[in-house]
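Section handout 9: paired folding examples.
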Amino acid sequence: MIDERPISLLIADDHPLILAGLAAMIREEPGLALAGQATDGPTAVEQYLRLRPDVMLIDLNMPGGGGVEAIRRVRAAVPDARIVILTTWEGDEDVHRGLLAGASAYLLKQSTLDQVVHCVRQVAANRRYLAPGLAEKLAARVPANRLSRRELEILAHLSSGLSNKMIARTENIGVGTVKYHVNNILSKLNVSCRTEAACVALRRGLIHHH
């Protein structure tokens, strides 16, 4: 006999349309139940502690200390709280801070209903849910400041497809020096080839396409 009780959700977002859309979506979905709504961090914390929903969906950029602070406070009070970050952009630095603060997952606001339901079910079952590709991205995430200015310059060249020889010529340094920098970049970004380095760099905003 499987537990057919719907998963109760608290949603916190300061955009009325997103809140209304999520609320409508949750009401339509038989496996989910709407426990409450909040439009700022402190209210989200207060509601969570009062309503004790199975899962909280929370936007990070809200008034009153924002979502990261709210996640910290909820997790301090309820260590096994299940929290999903709502974000418009997966490169958001705050997403990483939110996951570190104790969120189990994040969802892009442009996710489909199926993705939301799947994510909520995973998190409610105490499994982490990472948007496709996020696991590798977090694994490959080292603080950007670990790359020196010179390494960032070489990374930019490398990402535009220049060979070591071309980079050496452009930067007026020896090919051996370029190789040395490239190897450092690969190990710092935790990737195995130049193409991956370029992808990670672009995703993390270390370089920008012109």
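Moving on to protein 2 of 2.
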Amino acid sequence: MKVEGLFPRTWRALVRGRGRPALWLIPVGLLAVWGGWFLQARIIVYERSAQARLELHREVYAIDAPVEGRVVMTQVELHRAVHAGEVLVELEHAQEERRVAEAEAVLQGLGPQLEAARAELEAEQSGLVEQKGQGVAGVEEARARLADAEAVARRAQEEEATTQRLWKRGVLSEMEWRRSHTELERAQATERAARATLARVRSEGSVQSTDRRTRLAALRGVIARLEAEESVARANVERLRQELERRVIRAPADGVLGETASVRVGAQLQAGAPIATIVAGGAVRVVAQFSPEALGRIREGQRARMRLEGFSWTEFGMLEASVVAVASEVREGLVRVELSVDELPSGIPLEHGLPGLVDIAVGQATPSRLVLRTLGRGLDAPARTQPKALRVGGETELPKGGS
């Protein structure tokens, strides 16, 4: 066979159908490529919610009149932005201001009295210390004089005894003996006086110490009474200030005035009367409900995307989010999942209650694994719906109505 004629004959053979088996190479190759993709490709697996919506956290504060009174100033206007601590309504409070001023005057008057009593107490305490020192010195002096008088009396007694013996022997005259006897009596009198002086000094020191201690106790009582009065006066001032502050109604938080009542200057408000509500803004989050099968697969930190109903994702895009909390129990057949909003496409307003669907990336899997998982769920479905057998008396029975 010539080489020049090989290609034309081959071409004619293929055209006549003799080369038809070679055409199967194309589907075989495609099947091999698909099989490799089916077994090896990694696909992100998403868990889709049953329902979801945007929730805008808002704190609503109801403002009521705390006390009864006549309105003297009001700044309550519907939809007006307010700041925390801003005065909204003032009730008449002239009488309360006078009471506060009187209580503050009483409190200020007790301060100097208390300071004077404390200074007097300190002076008395210092005087008591000095008096104790002086008393000790006086007693020591009296003791020294008594000791000197006792010594003089002993010498006089010895001289009187010697003089008496000499007089009886006739050595001295009676006059000399009587003079020595007189000196003895004088020395004894001086000794008695010194002893009495010592007793008097001791008694006087004790009496003076007792008097000072009595004055100290009285001063401490005065100080305690003044401190109690000061505490009562301070508490009274605080109470009156709180009553005064209750008549100045302020905004509890930043926000916007929602529902407002008709509050005009001169109107008489009753205690508990509604004045307004403040709606404080907060962060936006996504709240989604998933089937119980999502438990264990959805975890904190997983990425998610949300398609909002009414906003085509091809035109507006999808909202990017992250899982921040997953409920640990099923309620009403669904599991609650909360997500934070990471990125909001432009053109989509932040409105409370916008519905949509959330897809959470829970992992990756090959197409073959996904097919097997789907088949497994399909096989498990009849088992879950089949009625359970009951154990009665050691025998297995089906519930009534079962076969």
